[in-house]
């Protein structure tokens, strides 16, 4: 692992909490589906996903939940370009309205792959919600339906995001400064 620090906070925990609540307001106002399946893309989305689910309660919305573990990074800091399913969902998606939840939209490969897969499995609709949108490295044409924050071309950690499986526990988003 390269020498680095994570002292520069880009988005504090209070700002994240307010935006998560407003995202659920947007999701509910836009699409109040009767058979909603929310799929978290692990590992990075786990904190964001949990906070979103708690916020659904305020709207008396009770979605089904499931998780997928996908990999396109390995131990690196740049996407390999190939998406692999490590752990698949078990929920039946026939005629379901699916909301994919991911930590960061970067190259777009993971969410484009997953959206196509959900449609092939019978989902009626597939929307996506990301905590961070980093447009600088988009390799495929894909836009999230719901976005927490847009960020510049930085490597960030915290609130579920990692560098070589470290720093996921941080309650905020911090920039990784490599030396």
TrEMBL record:
Pathway: Purine metabolism; IMP biosynthesis via salvage pathway; IMP from hypoxanthine: step 1/1
Entry cofactors: Mg(2+)
Protein's cellular compartments: Cytoplasm
Entry annotated with the keyword Zinc-finger: no
UniProt keyword terms in alphabetical order: Cytoplasm, Glycosyltransferase, Magnesium, Metal-binding, Nucleotide-binding, Purine salvage, Transferase
GO cellular component: cytosol
Matching Gene3D superfamilies: 3.40.50.2020
MF GO annotations: hypoxanthine phosphoribosyltransferase activity; magnesium ion binding; nucleotide binding
Class of this enzyme: transferase
InterPro entries: HGPRT, Hxn_phspho_trans, PRTase-like, PRTase_dom
Catalysed reactions, as listed in the record: GMP + diphosphate = guanine + 5-phospho-alpha-D-ribose 1-diphosphate; IMP + diphosphate = hypoxanthine + 5-phospho-alpha-D-ribose 1-diphosphate
Domain Phosphoribosyltransferase: 12-163
EC identifiers of the protein: 2.4.2.8
One BP term from GO: purine ribonucleoside salvage
The family this protein is said to belong to: Belongs to the purine/pyrimidine phosphoribosyltransferase family.
Matching PANTHER family: HYPOXANTHINE PHOSPHORIBOSYLTRANSFERASE (PTHR43340:SF1), HYPOXANTHINE-GUANINE PHOSPHORIBOSYLTRANSFERASE (PTHR43340)
Protein name: Hypoxanthine phosphoribosyltransferase
Gene field: hpt
């Amino acid at each position: 692992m390269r020498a680095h620090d994570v002292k520069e906070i880009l988005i504090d925990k209070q700002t994240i909490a307010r935006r998560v609540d407003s995202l659920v307001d947007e999701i509910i106002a836009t699409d109040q589906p009767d058979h909603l399946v929310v799929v978290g893309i692990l590992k990075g989305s786990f904190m964001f996903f949990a906070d979103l689910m708690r916020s659904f309660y305020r709207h008396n919305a009770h979605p089904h939940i499931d998780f997928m573990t996908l990999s396109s990074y390995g131990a690196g800091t740049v996407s390999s370009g190939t998406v692999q399913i490590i752990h698949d969902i078990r929920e039946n998606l026939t005629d379901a309205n699916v909301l994919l939840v991911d930590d960061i939209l970067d190259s777009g490969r993971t969410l484009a792959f997953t959206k196509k897969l959900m449609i092939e499995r019978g989902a009626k609709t597939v929307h996506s919600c990301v905590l961070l949108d980093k447009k600088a490295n988009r390799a495929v044409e894909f836009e999230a339906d719901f976005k927490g924050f847009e960020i510049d071309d930085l490597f960030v950690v915290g609130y579920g995001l990692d560098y070589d499986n470290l720093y996921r526990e941080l309650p905020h988003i911090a920039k990784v400064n490599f030396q």
